[in-house]
Design a protein that fits this description.
The protein is 23% helix and 24% strand. The protein is elongated. It is of the alpha/beta class. The protein has two domains: 23-40 and 237-365, no CATH class; 65-204, 3-Layer(aba) Sandwich (Rossmann fold). The two termini are 36 Å apart. The strands form four sheets. It has a six-stranded antiparallel beta sheet. The relative contact order is 0.18. One of its GO terms (molecular function) is FMN adenylyltransferase activity. This is FAD synthase. It is an enzyme of class 2 (transferase). Residues 149-209 form the FAD synthetase domain. Its EC number is 2.7.7.2.
Length: 370
């Protein structure tokens, strides 16, 4: 099945284009580079597509609140989905069916400066599926609680909400978790209040990185707690080895690629504006990354295909397209991509020209900046 990734209203640009610096013509199986010119499609149809995409909701793949009844909720922000967050899910899996509960509208209510998330919404389900291997074979699901509905609650009232309205049977949180109005409650209070309501409460100690990648010049052990802040700081200095150590996986970047606004005919160099980034990139520099394309939008129809056993399977027609390794350059305005394989460019051209759904470019970084 394909991946549905609703695009955020504020980050999508209609200026995506393949630059005219490198037109490639296949000659004897090799690419000959010639100069040509190209402009982004600014037609009414392209503008209409982008307007439609801006109406999509920037939301995680979440379950309704009522589904957490009888389950165990992990409490936190979960921006990075790092190894510390995974430890909460591991502990929750020993108690019952686990959910990652965080708050929506928190930044707006508290007046925090808007910034890109560390993990794009479209990548989050795959990360959680990876965690199934350490969570009893079951992937955690995410659930969002509107921060506006709980901001004024005392610590006791918040625990009452979890016990009565959400009907959870257990709570898992980190040892530095704060909750309630003005963060009045701490982990010890969460444990005592939960126990008083008959809830199973587990407090998980901070997870620290033990490898050398995140310790330039030597970081004291007490300062090596894994956190979303450290992930963001490592991205800002282009230290992707450290990011991988904190996340337990390589960093991925999602970029909106509105199909009808891209002139892709046989080009080996793709340029996309930073406004199309859906999550936090590494700092300015040149990197190697594995590229793939997935489609956005709900599937409109099913397509019948035969698998290797000759059996008919139903597909939504939004399968991923692997584009292989490429060199990517991030500057103050754009993301530039030099494809190593001309054949992959031709596949990308075909995909964008034939798909009715807007596409999403996914980059998995495999090297630090150069």
């Amino acid at each position: 099945m394909g991946t549905w990734c609703p695009l955020p209203l504020r980050h999508l640009s209609n200026t995506a284009s393949l630059t005219g610096h490198h037109r490639v013509h296949a000659v004897g199986g090799r690419g000959v580079v010639r100069s040509s010119a190209s402009k982004a499609d600014s037609s009414p149809s392209a503008k209409g597509l982008l307007d439609d995409l801006r109406k999509e909701v920037d939301a995680r793949d979440t379950v309704p609140l009522q589904e957490v009844a009888g389950g165990v909720v992990c409490l936190g922000k979960f921006d990075a989905l790092h190894l510390g967050h995974r430890a909460l899910a591991e502990r929750a899996a020993t108690i019952g069916h686990m959910f990652m509960l965080s708050f929506s509208n928190m930044a707006a209510v508290l007046g925090w400066e808007p910034r890109l998330p560390l993990v794009a919404s479209c990548h989050r389900p795959a990360v959680l599926r990876q965690w199934a291997s350490v969570c009893g074979g079951i992937a955690p699901r995410e659930v969002l609680l509107d921060f506006r509905s709980v901001r004024s609650l005392s610590p006791a009232a918040f625990v009452d909400l979890l016990a009565d309205q959400l009907a959870v049977k257990g709570i898992v949180a980190g040892d530095n978790y704060r909750f309630g109005y003005k963060a009045a409650g701490d982990a010890a209070q969460l444990q005592s209040l939960g126990a008083a309501r008959g809830l199973a409460v587990a407090i998980v100690g901070s997870v620290q990185d033990c490898g050398p990648a995140c310790a330039p010049g030597g970081i004291p052990l007490a300062d090596r707690k894994i956190s979303s802040t450290r992930v963001r700081e490592a991205l800002q200095r282009g230290d992707l080895q450290c990011v991988e150590q904190l996340l337990g996986r390589r960093h991925q970047l999602a970029v909106g690629l509105p199909g009808s606004s891209v002139n892709i005919a046989s080009y080996a160099h793709l340029k996309l504006p930073r406004l199309n980034f859906l999550n936090e990139p590494p700092c300015l520099g040149t990197y190697e990354a594995l590229l793939s394309i997935i489609a956005t939008g709900r599937p409109q129809q099913q397509i019948s295909r035969r698998n290797e056993n000759g059996l008919t399977q139903e597909s939504d027609g939004l399968d991923g397209l692997e584009l292989g390794l490429a060199r990517v350059r991030i500057d103050v305005e754009n993301l530039g991509i030099d494809f190593h394989d001309v054949g992959k460019v031709e596949q990308l051209e075909h995909r964008i020209r034939t798909s009715s759904a807007p596409q999403l470019l996914s980059l998995e970084f495999v090297s630090d900046q150069r």
